[in-house]
Amino acid sequence: MTMTSEQPAPTEPAQEDKREPPFILYMEGAEYDDALHRLTLWVRHLLLPVYGREVTSMAPWCPGWWRHPEAIAQLYGLWMAWQDLTGPAAGLTGPAIWHRDHLAHVMASLRDPNGPFAGCKPGAHREKEAPGMEPYPG
């Protein structure tokens, strides 16, 4: 088929930039600060008031949770899943899926007595020492 000036050129579907935002541990500077700020708002105004159970020695919570990289990583993932599964496109079962597949596991992991908040108490953060690693010989 030959093109004439009367025939419109075929168009290709517009390609949308579907890049997802990077995971928080890959961010730096202002991008990281902004993501952490938004995460802390969600934790403070939704997660803890609704799902933050009493702090005990068997279920610790650190009041400075943002000082624990593992907590940041897990809570950020939980928040991303929240946004995905509670938005308009999630359908009626989205919130139930979020509770079943995300909330219980993350909270149990974070609040485990041997988890990232071990040694932290209400009003007191305790720094953790990461496990050591010898240099790889290769």
As a whole number of angstroms, the C-alpha radius of gyration is 22 Å
What is the overall silhouette?
globular
Distance between the termini: 61 Å
Number of strands: 0
Structural class determined from secondary elements: mainly alpha
Strand content: under 5%
The amount of helix comes to 40-55%
- State the major sheet: none
Question: What do these coordinates show?
Answer:
This protein is mainly α and 138 residues long. 42% of the residues lie in helices and 0% in strands. It contains three helices and no strands. The chain has helices at 29-51, 69-86, 94-110. The termini are far apart.
Give me a quick take on this structure.
The protein contains 3 helices and no strands. With 138 residues, the chain is an all-alpha fold.
Please name the defining characteristics of this protein.
0% strand; single chain; globular; mainly alpha; 138 residues
Which SSEs are present, and which pair or pack?
Elements: H1 29-51, H2 69-86, H3 94-110
